[in-house]
Amino acid sequence: GAVVSQHPSWVICKSGTSVKIECRSLDFQATTMFWYRQFPKQSLMLMATSNEGSKATYEQGVEKDKFLINHASLTLSTLTVTSAHPEDSSFYICSAPTSGAGLRNEQFFGPGTRLTVL
Amino acid sequence: QKEVEQDPGPLSVPEGAIVSLNCTYSNSAFQYFMWYRQYSRKGPELLMYTYSSGNKEDGRFTAQVDKSSKYISLFIRDSQPSDSATYLCAYLQGGSEKLVFGKGTKLTVNP
User: How far is A68 from chain B (nearest CA, A)?
Assistant: First the structure.
């Protein structure tokens, strides 16, 4: 299947700093990528849809000024958590859909980035 | 009522047992039904998908959908310790790429 990578896999930062997370589709192009957040023992919650060449669309309740998304190319989307606080500590996962012979627009997920804000 | 309900478990079974995982949903617009497996500290991987009522089999895994009852199940036969993971049901509306996930059920298969 298609491969999606994320970098870094984990990051620890001080409160008030900004953290950038990269999501790359390694062997296919993705005009759309999705960013999820997963708290311990909780499900994946969609935060935003990243669109190449246009603004991201955010889910209700997600602050667009706090979670900056840039879809710089057909293979790269970045999520920047600005002025991070301890409550932003979570597991951030991206996904990218690809058209294939099987499920229409099957989404492939990255390995996730664990963010800890001290 | 939540769109998706899934018992988080945890579920612990001996090796070789048959495992039954279930989800219910309330949104009639859901057209695609999926099961993902997520190992600890990893991203989810697609196990099975279906878009119609009935059963779909793939090796030791069987996905079952009952649209009239808005109920989906995943059965694992001859469970193995390597099946220990969190299993998430997920849904997709027709024409949408936004997945809606259940909370996930944590499964442990003991050798």
Answer: 19
Q: What is the Cα–Cα distance from B7 to A81, expressed in whole angstroms?
A: 31
Residues on chain B touching A41 (C-beta within 8 angstroms):
8, 103
pLDDT one-digit tens code per residue, B26-73 = 888 888 899 999 998 889 999 998 888 889 999 999 999 998 899 999
Alpha-carbon span A23 to A10, nearest angstrom: 13
* H or E element at residue A86: none
3-state helix, strand, coil in chain A (%, to 5): 5, 55, 45
Cβ pair B43:A42 closer than 8 A: no
Q: Do B99 and A114 touch (CB under 8 A)?
A: no
Name the burial class of residue A7, with classes exposed (0-12), middle (13-18) and buried (19+) by CB atoms within 10 angstroms of its CB.
middle
Nearest-angstrom CA–CA distance, A86 and B79: 39
pLDDT digits (tens, 9 = 90+) for A55-102: 999 999 999 999 999 998 999 999 999 999 999 999 999 999 876 544
Helix (H, G, I), strand (E, B) or coil at B9: coil
The minimal CB distance from A43 to the residues B32, B97, B102 is found for B102
Question: Would you call A105 and B43 a contact, using CB atoms and an 8 Å cutoff?
Answer: no
Nearest to A97 among B34, B45, B97 (CB): B97
Provide DSSP, A39-78.
Answer: -TT---EEEEEEETTS--EE-TT--TTTEEEEEEETTEEE
Chain A residues whose beta carbon lies within 8 Å of the beta carbon of residue B88: 43-44
